Amino acid sequence: MEGSRLVISLSPHIRDKDTTQKIMFTVVLALIPVWAAATYFFGFNSIRLVLLSSITAVAAEAVIMVIRRQPVTAVLDGSALVTGMLLGLSLPPSLPSWMAVLGAVVAIVVGKQVFGGLGSNPFNPALVGRAFLVASFSKAMTTWTAPFTDTVTAATPLINQNAVSYSELFFGTTAGSLGETSALAILLGGIFLFYRGVLDYRIPVGFLGSAAVLMFLFGEDPIFHLLSGSLLLGAVFMATDMVTTPITPKGRWIFGIGCGVILVLIRLWGSLPEGLTYSILLMNAATPLINRWTRPRIFGQGVKTHE
Amino acid sequence: MLLKTFPRGGSDIPQRKEATKNKAIAVCPAPKRAVISVNQHIGTPCEPVVDVGDSVKIGQKIGESAAYISAPIHASVSGEVVGIEDYTVLDGTKARCIVIENDGLEQLYAGESSDYTKMSPQQIVLVIKDAGIVGMGGAGFPTHVKLSPAKPVDTVIINGAECEPYLTCDHRLMVQQPAAIIDGLKAMMKALGAKRGIIGIENNKPDAVKIMKNMADISADISVVPLKVKYPQGAEKQLIKAVLEREVPSGCLPAEVGCIVSNVHTAVSVTEAINQGIGLYQRVLTVSGSLIHDPRNVLVRIGTPIKQVIDFCGGMIKPPPVVIAGGPMTGKPIVDLSAPVVKCLSGILVLREDEIDFERNDPCIRCARCVDSCPIGLQPNFLADLCEKGLIETAEDYHIMDCIECGLCSFICPAYRGLCNSIKKGKTALKMKKSVG
């Protein structure tokens, strides 16, 4: 036709404008209030650890992409940045810099790239990095400083339960890992994620709900447990990682509730004060099975014919 | 009032109907040469019943098949048959076509005009069969086959959802020819002995809902159901579920639950066939998209070259464009603008290349948006993966054959994966394997 060329496209010819990159940077945005709160309470340590962890994660991803002969531009999808920020925010303020760097390398290399990179990892990479650090440097990973200081060591509320009020826990003026202390900042980020359609409510609701109910049944203060430790940070930002959680609606409920059950078991009877990391990692391991068990009903299956 | 819709999955998608929804249907001049494909329907292609040199009139039968699942074809211009030859059709393949040189006399074939109220059910089906009427929403399934179901049918549903973006031809027909739709519906009800008629319309066409309701009020057995705007509301089984609360069992036809679904345009064509007694020779389609100078709804003769229809709408703004037959969700690319219009072509879209979201196949991040939006309840990411790996038997266990190919999984995928295309390929492979045994 008049020498004009027609361009061929396969249906659907139009697509939703939301992309992987937009989803990842939405999570980054949602983490900004958490990071801001951490910086307010813990000062330079927050900037130091989160920046180091993030930069290392992105750099490690880039190096691996080169080794795998994949386009390095893949790091622009933002997934490594999310991993790095989450790991950084889960670290105690006084942690040595080199440990944060090592943790970020392990998160990306062992937690993600050995499985084939984005989308292929069974476990949440940030939590793999964190679990590695806890196992290797348990002393440094359980030494916390009080807010507004960087030398005075303090116990987290989970160990020293009676020392803090609900409002301190809610606003975050307690000892703890960088991003976990301020429930307010985490909720702000979570609401933003939900509003943007990036967060499925089933996992955090199932997680927090089951943890609260179980704690109540075992005679503990459920509100204290919801607000203390890294439960809220994990339930909103880590247990909701799309890659490592079920793809079925029913499966997400099971995942969330399962996380809550394991967390309570570890907090009440385990040798660790906090059970968040392992509760999510264990449920990550169960995700393929959950997907298999919770396949949605197929339209037109098992229905009777008319009359 | 809570609008009806299907319960599972589905999603909002862009509408983009503003450019044409308020434009009255314009009549595209008849082509100098009509190129009429022998294969415009699902089923056996027609054999020509005319020879080169024969003179034919508008609506005269020029091809048919003895096979049951087939639909005859008719001349769309009066003039001389100048060729029966292979011609490039919409999908770029060659198909046998009957070429008629238009003599410009516009002579109509002398058909026997009748009235459905005075016809027997068998006569109605016969007239519809002879007129070559097929599903004009895009599927092209012969209507007379639908009207001869294996099970009793109590309800005929007219599909006025028109859930594909851009397309407004059904909308305009409902606004401009409501009486013809009601008559076509009643004729089909009579042919089937059905007691009830329902017209389902997505609620983004309030004028159509109002007009059809006014028309339908004349008779108590026909109702108009406004539907929530949700893709794929116009998919047959989703529409039945929405308006009737009946669920067609997997692998079955709608007659299994006592209903059939027919497109708005099909109903209009049924009325025209009965009233004029001649074959289907023209249809309304929407010509739209950012590269069309004057987007509009046009009445076009079957066999008109796509190029001529586009030129009638002011032509294209600047090539190279992407030209799509049908809507952007399920429409196929047009590879040759000399290809002729066929019975089931509901739209011609001409879009800029940068408006098209091509497949990128970034890694799946298991966000599960495809699972959440699948109207069938499939796991498209998983199925597509199985198909890519050639594990089509496993895919069958996961109900791949229930996929209705609406394209929503690919649409919604943030990694821009070609989920639906992988699944389509897997379905084709599975069918091939089964037919080989």
Describe the structure.
- The complex is a heterodimer of chains A (307) and B (437).
- With 307 residues, chain A is an all-alpha fold.
- Helix content of chain A is 57%, strand content 1%.
- Chain A has 13 helices and 2 strands.
- In chain A, strands 1-2 form a two-stranded antiparallel sheet.
- In chain A, helix 2 (44-67) runs parallel beside helix 4, helix 3 packs across helix 4 (97-109) and helix 4 packs across helix 5.
- Chain A is globular and about 70 Å long.
- Chain A starts with 19 loop residues before the first helix and ends in a 14-residue tail after the last helix.
- Chain B has 3 domains: 26-111 and 279-354, Ubiquitin-like (UB roll); 116-276, NADH-ubiquinone oxidoreductase 51kDa subunit (Rossmann fold), CATH 3.40.50; 369-435, no CATH class.
- Chain B contains 14 helices and 17 strands.
- In chain B, a hairpin with a 6-residue loop joins strand 15 and strand 16.
- The longest helix of chain B is centred in the last third of the chain and has 18 residues, at 419-436.
- The relative contact order of chain B is 0.15.
- At the A-B interface, helix 1 of A face strand 15, strand 16 and helix 13 of B.
List its traits.
heterodimer; A: 307 residues; mainly alpha; Ammonium transporter fold; two-stranded antiparallel ribbon; 13 helices; 2 strands; 57% helix; globular; B: 437 residues; alpha/beta; Ubiquitin-like (UB roll); Rossmann fold; six-stranded mixed beta sheet; four-stranded antiparallel beta sheet; 14 helices; 17 strands; 28% helix
Largest interface, chains and sizes = A-B, 48 and 76 residues
Globally, the shape of chain A reads globular
Main sheet characteristics of chain A = 2 strands, antiparallel
Q: What oligomeric state do the depicted chains represent?
A: heterodimer
Which regions of chain A have little confidence, pLDDT < 50, spanning 5+ residues?
none
- The structure class of chain A reads mainly alpha
Task: Please report the first level of CATH classification, the CATH class of chain A.
Answer: Mainly Alpha
Q: Quick one: biggest sheet of chain B?
A: 6 strands, mixed
CATH topology term of the largest domain in chain B = Ubiquitin-like (UB roll)
| Strand fraction of chain A | under 5%
Category from helices, strands and their pairing of chain B: alpha/beta
Distance between the termini of chain B: 52 Å
- Numbering strands along the chain, what is their spatial order in the largest sheet of chain A? 1-2
Count, helices of chain B: 14
Question: What integer value in Å does the Rg of chain B equal?
Answer: 21 Å
Mean pLDDT of chain B comes to 94
Strand content of chain B: 15-25%
